[in-house]
Amino acid sequence: MQKSFFSARIYGHLIKMSLRSMMQYRADFWTSLAGVLALNGANIAQMSIVSWRFGTVGNWTAGDLMMLYGLYMVSVSLYSIFFGRIALLESEIIHGTFDKYLVRPVNVFVQFVGGEIRYVGLSDTLLGIGLIVLGKAFTGIAWGPLDYLMLPVFVACGGCIIVCIRLMLACAAFWVVKARALQSMIMQVMLLTQKYPVFIFGDVFKAFVTGVIPIAFMNYYPAIYLLRKGDAPIWLCLLSPAVALLFVALATQAWKRGIARYSSAGG
Amino acid sequence: MKCYRAFVRQQLNSLTLYRFEFVMKVLYGCIAMYGVRCLWYALHAQNPALLGRSLPDMITYAMMAMAMDLVFYPSGDNAVYDCMNAQVKSGSIDTDLLRPMGFQRQMLYRNASRMMVLSWVLVLPAWLLAVLFMGMQLPSSLVHLAAFFVSVGLAYFVLFSLSFLLGLLGMITMDIRHISWAYRGLVDLLSGKLVPLWLFPPMLMQCTNLLPFRCIYDIPLNIYTGAFDAAEIFRQLGFQCMWALALMSAGHLLWRKVHLRLTVQGG
After folding, report:
1. Least CA distance to A183: which residue of chain B?
2. Distance CA B174, CA B85 (A)
């Protein structure tokens, strides 16, 4: 317990350091916001053009798609802001720079992810919130207190799921060293689910993103619940917290086993 | 040509080191092709008349765009502007400037050789899998096939020139990370990669018809799917030639200006 408090305190210090350095580059934050807006603007424009031309995708309107994409963006932003360094694990292993975390008397994971806050992720958060608000306005659905309560729960669980999936994929580098392509492949699956309802990709794909790599719990099932779509049973939509917990346990195991197996590549 | 062959050999050696990555990348392409195929199937089922093309033509267009994206999407070493920016930051650009070959030509050879090798090992297998298992059509005639190859070559020149110009901008501003995100979004949308341009609202389509971005995906893919007759093919190839020449010349002239004020950061 004492060890956990110590790790949390160290993480807090690392975050504070990172925030201080971030505040030195305010202009950079605004240009990053513009860049993220333009990059995601292409996706939003694509959804808008398809909605304008075809009316709906399946039975999902433009407002529904905005909610879907917004939920994805906010969840992913939690990863981007606080855990973005996970993507660097492979290169740290290849260059042997991972060794430094192992010789210090502080939790390895805390040191590894705590060294940096990526403010670029904040742009995703703002854009995602904007899309959720717009999506709700466009669909005209009235939310009750429970819906407002469930929204942050879904976002937190979505963030948790993506962090754990990315950590497990990154941990593959402990075994095969070059694992970036594996990550890219799963990211490609995520690109499909981020802006279109999963059912249009067929039953096999839907089963895959529900039961194997459960990214449908990041935005698809929460959106069904919040938009009252009726495309899936309510109990399935409310499974997000259980899936998140399961994946935290799996990712913890993968990380521990990876560390135990790690042998420095030199550097 | 001897120089170019040496560049190709060098790229082939470095790229074939990690075979696992290639298998994953081909799979990545296949997932992307499967995704767009499902999307256009779903939209076709809603209202076939709104597609503006037959379903086989539409999915061929969309899947071929994803196959081309495997080499055209600027990521890692594919991104000319990232390479240029990294060279300035690390100081390694001074070695390039000592070589008895123009800088623009060196970048072109280096990048084109990589693209050529990647086309063999990534696009060709992905294309073959799509033809065999996903219903992608072959080009409508041998003339269209030949014209498609010419058009892809010109598309590459346009893409390279735009990236080179962005790289030059990075030499002035020293950091183009955020600008490059906006650039990627712009290319993705206005080139017809995400949504074919004929589905755009008329006003937007008129604008995109004048811009160089449609040279990258829209023209080669329309040639591949047989949407253009012989006269139209010549007209469109002429349009691509014009933009390729204009942008290559602009890059050449701008490099001469930038070279005079180039500050190398590292070394």
Report:
1. B24
2. 7
* Residue B64 tokens, joined: 């071929």
Burial of A13 (0-12, 13-18, 19+ CB in 10 A): exposed
A185 — contact with chain B (CB < 8 Å)?
yes
- Determine the Cα–Cα distance for residues B251 and B249; give it in Å rounded to an integer: 5
Is A28 near chain B, with CB under 8 Å? yes
Question: DSSP letter string over B142-153?
Answer: HHHHHHHHHHHH
Q: What one-letter code names the amino acid at A169?
A: L
Q: Select the residue of A46, A52, A188 nearest B194 (Cβ to Cβ).
A: A46
Q: Which of B175, B181, B186 sits opposite A36 (nearest CB)?
A: B181
Nearest to A35 among B35, B178, B194 (CB): B178
CA pair distance A155, A247, nearest whole angstrom: 15
Of residues A64, A89, A101, A114, the one with CA closest to residue A222: A64
Q: Pull the structure tokens for residue B39.
A: 């999307």
ipTM higher than threshold 0.90: no
Q: Closest Cα partner for A220 from A209, A204, A205, A208?
A: A209
Any B CB within 8 A of A56 CB: yes
Angle between helices B103-118 and B2-15 (to 10 degrees): 50
The partner residue sitting opposite B194, judged by closest CB among A42, A202, A205, is A42
Inter-chain residue contact A182 with B24, CB threshold 8 Å: yes
Per residue in A134-145, pLDDT tens? 999 999 999 999
CA pair distance B223, B214, nearest whole angstrom = 12
Which of B49, B129, B244, B199 lies closest to A46, judged by CA? B199
Q: Which two tokens stand for residue B250?
A: 């602009």
* Per-residue pLDDT tens digits for B3-46: 667 766 766 666 665 667 778 788 888 888 999 999 999 999 98
Interface contact flag, B185 A38, Cβ < 8 Å: yes
pTM: 0.85
Tell me which of B30, B174, B178, B195 to substitute to probe the interface with A (most A C-beta atoms closer than 10 Å): B178
Residue A7 half-sphere exposure toward CB, CA atoms < 13 A: 12
